[in-house]
Amino acid sequence: MVSVPIYPTANADTVAYILGHSEAKAVFIGKLDEPDALGKAIPDSLATIAFPYPSASGRSAWNDLIAAAEPIVSPYEPSPGDVMTILYTSGSTGRPKGVVISYGAYHYGCSAAQSVADLGPDSRLLSYLPLAHVTERAVIVGPSIYAGARIFFVESLHTFPRDLKFASPTIFGSVPRLWVKFQSGIHARIPPRKLRVLLAIPVVGRLVARKIRAGMGWENCQAFGSGTAPISLHTLEWYRRLGVNISEGWGMTETSGLSCTNLPFRANRLGTIGVPLDGTELKISDEGELLIRSPGLFTEYYKQPELTAEAFTEVGRILPYRRQGRVGRTPRGLPHHRAGQGHFQIGKRQVRRARPDRESPVGEPLDRTGLRRWLGPAGADRARCPVGCGTASAQGNCRGEPRENPPGNQPASRVA
Question: Which of 4, 46, 296, 388 could disulfide-link to 108, CB 3.0 to 4.6 Å?
Fold first, then answer.
């Protein structure tokens, strides 16, 4: 069985396309805002199983199937190269692409995230973003299962503040838009000028910051994260004054989640995406493309061999890398790619990450200084390749060996 998650906010046309393109055989239906409209996108030929939500309806009910079925005696044990899931991209540049993720890639993504976040049985996490998103699957839910951690799910948007306090997470990640919204909520209770004065008083400031964290449900939180879009350096510095040290991270669906992060938090890397995870390597090609090599790389774009071929390249004995570039040009002619954590603006052996508060499109040379700005000081110091390929590697070397990119196994059935 291969899971094909679909965003609950997807329109009927997108739902119909994904079901048809993935050749789904059954559909599990959960909570939907517009069940009638989306129901018309599901062909009558597909089996429909409804989860126990008032708005969910199907020819079969999940609870009834569980009650009538015998427990599985011998669970199927997949091979690392078997297809685990097909994650369809948002389709902002056309039809959604089916990103095929293997069990091996998913295992790497979850294990690496678990390790860098130091998750264990005592960890507590809150899940509130769509489970169809790679971040929620490979950075939150998956690592929690691997670590045996406790995970809480938000009931609804309206209950989010209450659910956050109840969960009292030990690690909490969000997106820039919500970090700004949290900031506005705090300012609604304590005017900005008054808060600045209070925080500047040595003892009082610590007490005020602790009270604010407790009021948000962060009293037990040991690590904070932000991703999916650039966040203002001003916002990061504002939260630091509250004792909330936000570590940025970057990754893609095609890399099975996280690729770089500033976890554990380092103040001298504030405003960067930190260093590559162990096993992930970054390189700038002679053409100025950002290239990624990692055990978490996707297998292929489902049914799109031409696109798959364009996504991978061979550089000497280093292969495969995920191409990350040349999707348009900046006003000054520098090729760039909008990838998760803002614009990576890349010119001839140049790289820079644009931020809302750093709008200049001019790149920096990819020397030690340029790497320091992008990956942070520690990341630059570890980004030296002994074979001279220019690779930035978390281990300090790229081994210079090719990694097999196993062809995607075509499973017999898909489940959306």
Answer: 296
Judge if the upstream peptide bond of residue 192 is cis by omega within 30 degrees of 0.
no
**Spatial separation of the C-alpha atoms in residues 338 and 359, rounded to whole Å:** 14
Note the Cα 76 to chain centre separation in Å: 27
User: 139-173, pLDDT tens digit by residue?
Assistant: 999 999 999 999 999 998 899 999 999 999 999 99
pLDDT in tens, 193-221: 999 999 999 999 999 999 999 999 999 99
CA angle 381, 176, 211 (to 5 degrees): 95
Q: What is the predicted pLDDT for the residue at 315?
A: 52
pLDDT for the residue 354: 38
**C-alpha distances in angstroms, 394 versus 12, 111, 277, 368, 383?**
43, 15, 6, 15, 7
Which CATH number is associated with domain 82-416? Answer: 3.40.50.12780
pLDDT confidence of residue 392: 35
Q: What contacts 328, CB < 8 A, 6 or more positions away?
A: 335, 336, 337
**Nearest partner of 50 among 160, 268, 42, judged by Cα:** 42
Q: What pLDDT does residue 285 have?
A: 76
Q: Which residue has the tokens 């209950």?
A: 159
* pLDDT classification of 310: cutoffs 50, 70, 90: confident
Pairing of strands 392-393, 281-284: antiparallel
Which H, E and C letters describe 222-240, residue by residue?
CEEEECCCCCCHHHHHHHH
Full strand arrangement of the beta sheet holding 343-347: 336-338, 343-347, 350-353, 364-365
Distance, in Å, from the CA atom of 9 to the CA atom of 53, rounded to the nearest integer, reads 16
SS3 category, 321: strand
Per domain, the residue ranges of the chain are 1-77, 82-416
Strands 24-29 and 414-415: parallel
Between 336 and 89, residue with greater pLDDT: 89
Structural contact between residues 219 and 213, judged by C-beta atoms closer than 8 angstroms: yes
pLDDT digits (tens, 9 = 90+) for 370-400: 333 444 444 443 333 222 233 333 333 333 3
Residue with tokens 């996108």: 41
Identity of residue 327: V
Q: How many residues in the chain?
A: 416
Q: Which residue type sits at 220?
A: N
Contacts of 215 (CB under 8 A, 6+ apart): none
What type of residue sits at position 149?
A
User: What's the pTM?
Assistant: 0.78
